[in-house]
UniProtKB/TrEMBL annotation:
Gene: mtnP
Classification via CDD domains: MTAP_SsMTAPII_like_MTIP
Molecular function in Gene Ontology: S-methyl-5-thioadenosine phosphorylase activity
PANTHER family tied to this protein: S-METHYL-5'-THIOADENOSINE PHOSPHORYLASE
Superkingdom of the source species: Bacteria
Claim: Acetylation is one of the keywords in the record: no
Keyword check for NAD: no
Record-listed phosphate binding positions: 17, 59-60, 92-93, 191
Name of the protein in question: S-methyl-5'-thioadenosine phosphorylase
Top class in the EC scheme: transferase
GO terms under cellular component: cytosol
Keywords for the protein's UniProt record, in alphabetical order: Glycosyltransferase, Purine salvage, Transferase
Lineage of source species: Bacteria, Pseudomonadati, Pseudomonadota, Alphaproteobacteria, Acetobacterales
Length: 296
């Protein structure tokens, strides 16, 4: 492989409810990263695992002070991009919408239905418009590596599933939960959108492992979801989640070719605003996210 066409990856991990740090890192340091989009959820934890550079972000902040609708998703993704992150593995607690995904199941999500409505969902506002493809919202290369490492660790993961993103913070009504089941969704959560959309706009390869903590509120034989139940099951899930992260970081971190699916070149054919009509102030804010295409 020609050196000049290869990438030395930096692995980003976004930890959801119950996952506020990662263990086993060398040279670890929490560092504040400033972004033109405001404050990320917390400082970022920089470190190395088996020599591979990685950056961890607790999605809701340490101690979980930030609710889903107040997450600054743009700042989170920009901060990871600015820190050199090329690949993101997102971890999330979710409710199950299927009988065959009981609490404790892990799902490698491959589709989303975005029902969130109170969030900033794009970096490309007035003055620099872009439309990236979202037909395949997650990176198959990261997904394949997650499956490989999970197999080696004997951790069972369902390959593929649709994650319904609700606004929250209240959990669903029973009618909503039934509707999402009829739509064929597998799991429900409040956070993976616009996270996945913004990662695509920032040309960061993104994949998501959803960890089932409850049966939401549709199941006759199970109680409706509560935070206490989520936290209890997450504590049981977290050992496997941590083992998976420890294995996936070194595996993903090997020098490699650009993403075969093109996630890292998502902006190649996405910008529509004519150069003369672009807003210089917005272009300055897009330095990390879109510098690759704006400066060529
Ligand atoms: C604590 S239950 C609801 C909460 O948990 C999930 O968060 P995350 O995706 O960050 O693990 C869900 O989306 C809600 O934000
Ligand atoms: N049932 C549920 N609905 C939304 N988000 C969740 N996170 C964990 N369980 C959930």
């Amino acid at each position: 492989m020609a050196e000049e066409n290869t990438i030395e990856p930096v692995i980003g991990i976004i930890g959801g409810s119950g996952l506020y740090d990662i263990d086993g890192l060398q040279d670890k340091e929490w560092r504040h990263v400033e972004t033109p989009w405001g404050e990320p959820s917390d400082a970022l934890l920089f470190g190395r695992l088996d020599g591979v550079r990685c950056v961890f972000l607790p999605r809701h902040g340490r101690g979980h002070p930030i609710p889903p609708s107040e997450l600054n998703f743009r700042a989170n993704i920009d901060a990871l991009k600015r820190s050199g992150v090329t690949d993101i593995l997102s971890l999330s607690a979710v409710g199950s919408l299927r009988d065959d995904l009981p609490p404790g199941s892990f799902v490698l999500v491959d589709q989303f239905i975005d029902r969130s409505f109170a969030r900033n969902k794009t970096f490309f506002t007035r003055g620099c418009v872009a439309h990236v493809a979202m037909a395949d919202p997650v990176c198959p290369r990261i997904g394949d590596e997650v499956m490989r490492q999970a197999n080696l660790l004997n951790i069972s993961i369902r390959k593929g599933g649709t994650y319904l993103v609700m606004e929250g913070p209240q959990f669903s009504t029973r009618a909503e939960s039934e509707l999402y089941r009829q739509w064929g969704c597998s799991v429900i959560g409040m956070t993976n959108m616009p996270e996945a959309k913004l990662a695509r706009e920032a040309e960061i390869d993104y994949a998501s492992v959803a960890m089932v903590t409850d049966f939401d509120c549709w199941h006759d034989e199970h109680d409706s979801v509560t935070v206490d139940a989520v936290v209890q099951v997450m504590q049981r899930n977290s050992e496997r989640a941590r083992a998976l992260v420890r294995a996936v970081i070194p595996a993903l971190g090997q020098r490699r070719a650009p993403c075969p699916a093109g996630c890292d070149r998502a902006l190649d054919h996405a910008l529509i605003t004519a150069p003369a009509a672009r807003d210089p102030a917005l272009l300055a804010k897009l330095d990390a996210v879109a510098g690759r295409v704006l400066n060529r």
